[in-house]
Amino acid sequence: MTPHADPQTGAAVKAADRAHVFHSWSAQGLIDPLAVAGAEGSYFWDYDGNRYLDFTSGLVYTNIGYQHPKVVAAIQEQAGRLATFAPAFAVEPRSEAARLIAERTPGDLDKIFFTNGGAEAVENAIRMARLHTGRPKVLSAYRSYHGGTATAINVTGDPRRWANDNGTAGVVHFWGPFLYRSPFYSSTQEEECRRALAHLEDTIAFEGPQTIAAVILETIPGTAGIMTPPPGYLAGVREICDRYGIVFVLDEVMAGFGRTGTWFAAEHFDVVPDLMTFAKGVNSGYVPLGGVAISAEIAATFDKRPYPGGLTYSGHPLACAAAVATIRVMEEEKIVEHAARIGETVLGPGLRDLAERHPSVGEVRGTGVFWALDLVRDRETREPLVPYNATGEANAAMAAFAAACKKNGLWPFVNMNRTHVVPPCNVTEAEAKEGLAALDAALSVADEWVA
After folding, report:
1. CA distance 281 to 322
2. pLDDT, tens only, 419-436
């Protein structure tokens, strides 16, 4: 679809937004939301006719791009047949979505509890772990994001937790592995893995293993920086959890459904958790949907004992119909395989080439269509381009970089001192190269802030 200018409508949309919409994670008087007129594939556009290549995939969820005709048609067909129905009943789209998801999850994660999104999935996974073990505590990493609801924000590690933290929430944070900014003074991935596992086991020992219900980790942390764990780390966490009877939860809300070039990122590490959360890419975000994939052992806990949790819209027919259509499209169009290939042949090499030419790039990390550039003031010291959790003038360098991206028709995912490269899983080679060219120009602006 070709965008066309309609400034009058755009002004009306913006005025209504500013008058009535309360935006998440924002100081309401300091934001200026773009009024979006439409979207298709890897692009969206505003009412002034400006088109942007979306290297954010919405919030890393439009894994098959915007407005895929087969998914749109499936939603329309389901709305005409059965627009909604209560979750206590067996309805075809819910049953089929659960079957298709269970076929793709690793190991025996064959029972699916549906939620409306990723945060609710984390809430319920933790509740299941606590009820299954009879223990109160949950361990999670500092560099993490798990959602904005009560428990999910407590297990989150990033600064959005601070204003919502509750000392009685039963959450203990620990340091996960991240060699580029190692808290363990490691010089190799092997050292980082070994020391991170020892740190986790020490944390468990000092907290009391008998008090810990679960360890929850993003398989590959997303918002926190796309740090792929070193070989052996997740397997080591699995072994520690088994030894102490702790439930191992993997959060695949962002990394799942093709984003890393496999159906789930856990496949890269040959590890099977006890519980796995998902959302976002399960139906490309077309209708809100998330869930928990549950192992046979934990599911059996609730065979004769009611599970004390539920949602009015659990497994909503429209959301599940979108999931069914999305999974089938991903199979038919080999989108998972494409994501792996575009990462290996275009994005990875292209980003590494940018790093060689731009002193503001400290490290390139990622796989599939899940990448991050760690921007720095000094490559030797690895000082971030802006301080941790910077705002206002302290964040000027990243603000200038983001503005340069948008000026060149690229909508970037910027978080702290990083830009994440997370286009749709079916981004074309030409689109990926277009995005790399825009990043090239914007990084020249970031370079001006290098010490």
Report:
1. 11
2. 999 999 999 999 999 999
